[in-house]
Amino acid sequence: MKLKGRKIVGGNAEGELIVSQKPLSFLGGVDPETGIVTDAESDIRGRSIAGKILAFPRGKGSTVGSYVIYALKKNGKAPKAIIVGEAETIVATGAIISGIPMVDGIDVTKLRSGVRVKVDADRGEVEIPKSGE
Amino acid sequence: MVNGMYLTKEEELILAGEYGYALQKAMEILVALGEIYGADRLIPIKSAQIAGVSYKNIGEAGIEFLRDFVNAGAKVSVYTTLNPAGIGDDEFMEKQAEVLNLYREMGIEITATCTPYYGANLPKFGDHIAWSESSAVIFANSVIGARTNREGGPSSLASAIVGKTPNYGLHLDENRKATVIVDIRAKVKTFVDYAALGYHLGRALGNDVPYLKGIKPEKTEFLKEMGAAMAASGSIALYHVEGETPEYRGAIDDKLETITVEDGDIKSVKEQFSDGWDGIDMILIGCPHTSLQEVKEIAGLLRMRGRPLKVPLFITASRAVKALADALGYTETIERYNGRIIADSCFVVSPIKGWYRGIATNSGKSAFYFRSFGFNVRLDDAENLIKEAP
Prior knowledge:
The structure holds 2 protein chains of 2 kinds. Chain A is α/β, with parallel strands linked by helices. Chain A has 2 helices and 10 strands, in the order ββββββαβαβββ. In chain A, a hairpin with a 4-residue loop joins β9 and β10. The N and C termini of chain A lie close together (12 Å). The model of chain A has no long low-confidence stretch (mean pLDDT 91). Chain B is an alpha/beta fold. Chain B has a 5-stranded parallel β-sheet with strand order 12-11-10-13-14, sandwiched between helices. A 4-stranded parallel β-sheet of chain B has the order 8-7-6-9. A 3-stranded parallel β-sheet of chain B has the order 3-2-4. At the A-B interface, β2, α1 and α2 of A face α2, α3 and α6 of B.
């Protein structure tokens, strides 16, 4: 199955999904040293986003969150790609300065953690294997 | 790049990296934001005001980004000023100085204030600008009639470098119209009445453009304070005041919902922030940073009090206002009564938890933040605070 969204930052990535169904704050919500989610309101609290394809509905919190995404990248703990329902300033800016492929306009309720997906951000596409597993 | 936004030849070249990495990244940010928010093109800006200055907020991650950007040759192309810096221990201050140096290397004016309009950076009516700092954004939009969205640190920096911003949101006439009418029946007279009104409206309205009826603010400072509180407790970036602010005529197009504000609404905000003096160990005036007139008034109140404060008084102001206060003798008076004027800094963005337990302030914005940091808070007019303080 292919989900069609919109390119925010171009590039390709393939990997395991980590999906939050709640908005995510990067400043104070993700540890830039480890890539572990610390946001108290998050449904993926305690899990790592490092090297995964990170999906969530939208960003929230301080605009300084963009720099946290940059720090994740520098520390080798960034997600391989970012998929959001709706792009906003914080996450889009973070992905741009960090060179992380990013797609928006995807219904993240259709995505499950642990599933391997392919992201073609240039086409704004997310490909999920047929079985769903 | 596929895009719906029109780019000039030169903008395309910047985006393709012809002018180097820093300009390219800055342009990528602006184009992406323009796409996300449906801008038709980029428009030139007159000035930028940049957030992401306090080391407490941006941390190592921010320093690393700024350093990489400086090394890539990032330079601002329009007049650009900074948000306030933080105050902390020696190690913190060293990091803070590093942040300011990186901004200096980009050609930014190192004046660090939330009230750039009291000195270095005063836009005029109708100017397009790219400002961050929510209290400065709402002042520029509402009181001056300049045009800016509520930018974040990275987006305002990108705009400063390119000298442009995507044309959407509050840059467009149609988005500057009121979305709700606020009929103020409460008595709103003093500085703190305005702070409480702003705080209440921020909570009640979210990101509306309110049209306020029934107030006659005596001073510009009252509008500054009301807007700051609105933008802190909510995310309002523009308001109109009937008969007062420059764009109130024509701000109402359609039939709008009306909400009312009664005395009880103002009182209930003040009651939320009425902790006793026994839990207070500092007085803070100057959020947003004080005008020279406010400094003069405080010096007068201290003289009337006639004896030094036991609880220290901190007045935060821009370097411009502090220099005038020094030259005119107000600083000396204030210091005689255990007060200090601190230039270009802000306690809200400083790691002062543990230094103090509680603050007394006339600022609705400070009340909001310090309560959320777990401090005791007493909100009252400067006149009462200076009279009653131990």
